[in-house]
Amino acid sequence: METSRDDFVIALRSAFLKKGIQQRFSLLSLIFFSIIFLILGSFNFKIINYVKIGIKEIVYRSSFIVSIPENLLKDSYLTIQNHKKLYNENEKIKSELEILKAKDLLNEFIILENQRLKNIVDDYLVKSDTIIAKVLTDKGSPFLRSVIINKGSKHKINLGMVVMDGEYLVGKVVEVNYLSSRVLLLSDLNSKIPVIVEPNTIFSILSGTGKDYGIIQYSKKYEDIKNESVIYTSGAGNLFKAGIPIGRMNINNLSDEKKVEFFSDFSQLKFVKVVSFKKSDIK
Amino acid sequence: MTGLRNKNFIKIILSKAPVILLFISVLNDYDFNYLSLKYFSFNFSYILIFYYSLKKSESLGYTYIFIAGLFNDVVTGTPIGLSSLIYLILCVAASYLRNITLRPSLLKDCIFFLVTILIINSLLFLSLNFIFNYELSYFDQIINITFTFLFYFLFSNLFDFFESHFVRNNNAG
């Protein structure tokens, strides 16, 4: 028993104190150094801080160089991953494109059928003229939501022309000057336009609120209007062409208001399309 | 003459390979984060230090290990001197095992390595958590210990291969 304890002590002492070949310090002395570093470092001792700064300078620079091969490996790995992702995406897009092509053919058929049916019921088709205008100012009063555009009667702008942001309805022209015009936005309190809520085909009136949303009014089928339904112009009263997208229903269960969130952000308008729709003969 | 000089250069590089590898591993901090493996990490420095302190203590000087520890502290942001202490304790354990071993076996080495890294990681965890107020994930530590232990088998064989086929042959040549 005594002998095994002696062996343990001898082995341990040898491990701690024996210097190997070309070793300047024994393990014990280096362990002491480490502990001194730790203690002095925790007290923010000046010399240790200088040593730390010196080591940092060396380490950060050499770390950059040493990391080059691994970074190269990492970059190659990420490139391969990206290629793989791109390949998968491409496959997905290809299949989606096939579906869209099929849908496009169907759409073409529907358009032609629509033209034919309109011809039968003696309806008219709509032809549009577009004028691109720049929004000069949108600093409307708190009560009037309108913007001024840089096109006027000189550019053949007329009262009541439709103003669009991309494919979304923004408002209509309510004042025409020689070189500028005022556009009343859909969010204005005075704005009331005939709309259709899809799905379920509910005809209604979209009123502005003076805020950044509109509300659905004067409809008998309020309960049929679902959240996320899309609002289009109905074309009733020949004010607007039918089917221009406006916004989406955002029904809050806490209030009875049927809010409509506009697709277009009226505070971010830079350029708008002023469009006039005319009847065209079906041939 | 040039051939002889080249041979000497290769000989020096091969003999210093463990030190170079140690500093590269410390400076580079191999983490394989870009592989997005959530439950994978291992400490290559522990394996390298333990193996060379056990098998070829003359290849990896204690002073280099001490300096590597200081570098590691700067890279990982731990209190300076802590990694050195941990590495040196690992050296003590390896040196002790070398002194008491009559017939070396990989399995015994591995078990001893496991016990050692459990102790030193516990020490690291305790000191960082309770003395220096660092927050460490206990689970991550366990994963790190497990993989470090498992990888010891692999790297031990690789180092054996390297030593027997490159270093020894070159010395003999």
Written description of the protein model:
Chain A folds into two domains: 25-123, no CATH class; 126-280, Rod shape-determining protein MreC, domain 1 (Thrombin, subunit H), CATH 2.40.10.340. In chain A, β4 and β5 form a beta hairpin. In chain A, strands 1-2-5-4-3-12 form a six-stranded antiparallel beta barrel. A six-stranded antiparallel barrel of chain A has the order 6-7-8-11-10-9. The mean pLDDT of chain A is 80. Chain A is elongated. In chain A, 38% of the residues lie in helices and 28% in strands. Chain A contains three helices and twelve strands. Chain A has helices at 2-17, 27-42, 46-120; strands at residues 125-137, 146-149, 162-165, 168-176, 181-185, 192-198, 202-208, 213-217, 230-233, 245-251, 258-262, 271-280. Chain B is built from seven helices and no strands. Chain B has a single domain (2-172), classed as Arp2/3 complex 21 kDa subunit ARPC3, CATH 1.10.1760. Chain B has helices at residues 2-15, 17-28, 44-55, 62-76, 82-100, 106-131, 138-172. Chain B has 173 residues and is mainly α. In chain B, α5 (82-100) packs antiparallel against α6. The mean pLDDT of chain B is 83. The interface between A and B is large, with 43 and 38 residues.
